[in-house]
Design goal:
The chain has 301 residues and is of the alpha/beta class. Helix content is 39%, strand content 17%. The chain has an eight-stranded mixed β-sheet with strand order 1-2-4-3-5-6-7-8, sandwiched between helices. The radius of gyration is 18 Å and the shape is globular.
């Protein structure tokens, strides 16, 4: 897929970046690579893509090298079938690790993660901890569901692989629409909604959206459970005492304050910026406040 294949809209003015592609065994992975200097690598979750990080790219590309990738099946990356690509956590981590190696990012990386990008990004960090110098955490998790934390019924329904759920998630686009409505504290602008949903405009193009939800590991018999457990167990040692900035939208009904508390329990040294007026799409709700917090972190570390 390329940007010319997407429905035209005002959103493209906010995403003026050149497209780059990295060949993986199952298809091309799209990424944005803007600016020069120490790298800032941004890892998205579901159902977003590199468009979600446009404010950070614009804010930091004058002084840093900003890289935002699209997972396979997402954004402008290729969309292989489930026979060609398993759409599971370990493969996602492999993809990110391979891209970082390809770009020659061996140290001094600032890693920014959101949603399921937390598990993927920290999973890649676990393999080469020396690569990452500092972390920016945005409404995400890199650990299994903490004890006592309920799993949202909305996600539980979407995890099923029935004809009805495929119709709702892939034919009716319920998951993407629901995220743009319930994922924000202030309400998305028309431009933001257009941009976030642009690559997910058909049944075929929403394959990864459904596969991402199905890949959430809740029980040991899930195919991605062991990989998630490795990340969970190695998380504290991976990060160590490296600087961590947690920017958290408190109106997130999935990654709620219980998830924030788990991050703080594991990393009491982290700097925390809670935003009462922001939701899951925290970068859409309070972009400038996150940019300011990141500037301070980058200046002092």
């Amino acid at each position: 897929m390329n940007i010319g294949e997407l429905r035209k809209g005002d959103w493209q003015r906010e995403y003026p970046f050149a497209s780059r592609y990295f060949q993986r065994p199952t298809g091309r992975m799209h990424y944005v690579d803007e600016g020069a200097g120490a790298p800032i690598v941004m890892v998205h979750g579901n159902p977003t893509w590199s468009f979600y990080y446009r404010a950070l790219i614009n804010a930091f590309r004058d002084s840093f090298r900003c890289v935002a990738m699209d997972h396979i099946g997402c954004g402008l990356s290729d969309r292989p079938t489930t026979e060609a690509y398993d759409y599971q956590l370990r493969s996602r981590i492999d993809d990110l690790e391979a891209l970082l190696d390809h770009l020659g990012f061996h140290d001094n990386v600032t890693l920014v993660v959101h949603d399921w990008g937390g598990m993927i990004g920290l999973g890649a960090a676990l393999r080469k901890p020396e690569r990452i110098a500092r972390y920016v955490i945005l409404n995400t998790a890199a650990f299994l569901l903490p004890p006592g934390v309920p799993f949202p019924w909305q996600l539980e329904i979407c995890r099923r692989d029935s004809a009805l759920v495929r119709t709702l998630v892939r034919s009716c686009n319920l998951f993407c629409w629901g995220a743009t409505i319930g994922g924000t504290g202030k309400g998305l602008s028309k431009v933001a909604r257009q941009g976030l949903m642009a690559p997910y405009d058909s049944y075929a193009n929403r394959l990864a959206v459904h596969e991402f939800v199905k890949d959430i590991p809740l029980k040991p018999d899930h195919p991605s459970y062991e990989t998630a457990l490795e990340v969970d167990k190695g998380l504290v040692e991976t990060v160590g005492g490296k600087p961590m900035q947690i920017c958290w939208g408190l109106q997130d009904f999935v990654f709620d304050e219980l998830f924030l508390a788990e991050w703080q329990r594991r990393f009491p040294h982290a700097t925390v910026e809670p935003y009462s007026d922001a939701g899951h799409y925290v970068l859409e709700d309070v972009p400038q406040r996150i940019i300011d917090a990141m500037r301070e972190m980058l200046r002092t570390t």
